From TrEMBL:
Residue ranges of domain 2Fe-2S ferredoxin-type in the record: 1-77
The keyword Metal-binding appears for this protein: yes
UniProt xrefs under InterPro entries: 2Fe-2S-bd, 2Fe-2S-bd_dom_sf, 2Fe-2S_ferredoxin-like_sf, 2Fe-2S_ferredoxin-type, Beta-grasp_dom_sf, Diverse_Oxidoreductases
UniProt keyword RNA-binding present: no
GO molecular function, one term: 2 iron, 2 sulfur cluster binding
Record-linked SUPFAM superfamilies: 2Fe-2S ferredoxin-like (SSF54292), CO dehydrogenase ISP C-domain like (SSF47741)
Signal peptide: none
Name listed for the protein in its UniProt record: Carbon monoxide dehydrogenase
Swiss-Prot/TrEMBL keywords: 2Fe-2S, Iron, Iron-sulfur, Metal-binding, Oxidoreductase
Length: 160
């Protein structure tokens, strides 16, 4: 079957089987390998993308079920001039990544959080990112990065 969706602002389509997961469709069908697959069971969050503006773990959604939708992947997070988005830059500046495997999902989840709640507390950041697993950072620098991206920086972390 042919599945078509708007990915990162561009209409894209590919032939795929009906049982193809969105994560596989993006990676194998469209060549967008920034979406990582870590568990295939919605446990790790490495595969988070936005579907019609909402965060979705793409390893458990069928591509055919989001046909016609607006999908945003980590490749679509950069600014139009190719520079890093505020969130991506904050992850870099605050060492919110180490091996980088969880980073695409963390960035996508963080973007969804900040769209929903532009000035979250540290506790709210930690609670929101609960569905994303990082085995390297201990989360502290990820939280610092999200707080910085929200414009709150170290002051809010120190206050809590």
């Amino acid at each position: 079957m042919k599945v078509t969706m708007t990915v990162n602002g561009k209409a894209m389509s590919a032939e795929t089987e009906g049982r193809t997961l969105l994560s596989s469709f993006l990676r194998d069908g469209l060549g967008l390998t920034g979406t990582h697959v870590g568990c295939d069971t919605t446990q790790c969050g490495a595969c988070v993308v936005h579907v019609d503006g909402k965060p979705v773990k793409s390893c458990t959604v069928l591509a055919q079920d989001v046909a016609g939708a607006e999908v945003r992947t980590i490749e679509g997070m950069a600014n139009k001039d190719g520079s890093l988005s505020v969130i991506q830059q904050a992850f870099q500046d605050h060492h919110g990544l180490q091996c980088g495997f969880c980073t695409p999902g963390m960035v996508m989840s963080s973007a969804a959080l900040l769209a929903e709640n532009p000035t979250p507390t540290e506790a709210e950041v930690r609670a929101y990112l609960e569905g994303n697993i990082c085995r390297c950072t201990g989360y502290h620098n990820i939280v610092k990065a999200v707080m910085a991206a929200s414009g709150q920086g170290e002051q809010q972390l120190a206050a809590e």
